[in-house]
Prior knowledge:
Elements: E1 3-5, E2 15-17, H1 20-29, E3 37-41, E4 47-54, E5 61-68, E6 78-83, H2 89-102, E7 106-111, H3 122-135, E8 143-144, E9 148-149, H4 150-154, E10 179-184, E11 202-203, H5 204-207, E12 214-219, H6 227-235, E13 239-242, H7 250-265
Parallel strand pairs: 1-3, 6-7, 6-12, 7-8, 7-9, 10-12, 10-13, 11-13
Antiparallel strand pairs: 2-5, 3-4, 4-5
Helix pairs in contact: 2-3, 2-7
Amino acid sequence: MNLFYSPELTSETIHVALPEEESAHAIRVLRMKKSDKVFLTDGKGMFYEGEIINPHPKKCEVKIIALRPPSHAPRPFHLTIAIAPTKSIDRFEWFLEKATEIGCDEIFPISCKHSERTVIKTQRLNKVIVSAMKQCMKSQLPKLHELTDFKKFISQEFGERSSERKPPTLNSKLQTPLLQKFIGHIPELSESEFPPKNSQDKLLSQVLLRTPNSILIAIGPEGGFSEEEVSLARENGFTAISLGNSRLRVETAGVVACSIVNAMLEV
């Protein structure tokens, strides 16, 4: 079964023209024809069943037959991962793919003091995310932001930030969403002892609340966040955490963070 992505879809849509790349895949690659059944997603949590009425390879037209809600309830939390892009863009693309598969709502590429990459091609990276969403048959497309300077990113009012997908309210007594903010931090290793002791902050699994509306986790570059960046994050309400005993590569840390949150909070 193939899934197609059309961001223009809404519950009121009767006919839709697939984007050019999706049209080419359906008609030229899969050789689909008029009257063939197709399944689509809007990337916002809904599936659709349709029928091809004009099999044009650049503008395939589809008639929407039915809305198909996901077979499971949406995650009761909003997960944002801020992460420094790796020097090898392939490794960063791997993170984007796995984060989409596991479950993530927003991704902020951040530029830090020790960053090895200061330029990314967001359009190319968005294609990786769309492909991963379709491959694993998900209906929620993570929102990828532009590369942002760490100091600018860390000072944002995330609790008041608007998003295409609002985190659900789990506690009716709260006037604003309950937000937990974390920053992955591993202190520099001592050069005077071997094997080195991996001193840690508290584990993410120990400090993550069971009923937050939103979780924000910042993952630094290969050289880690600078002490200045960690201090700045703490001043802005972030809690320094560890992801375990191992010293993880950037993309691995991002995937582990996604996995921990989803395993602990997904209903």
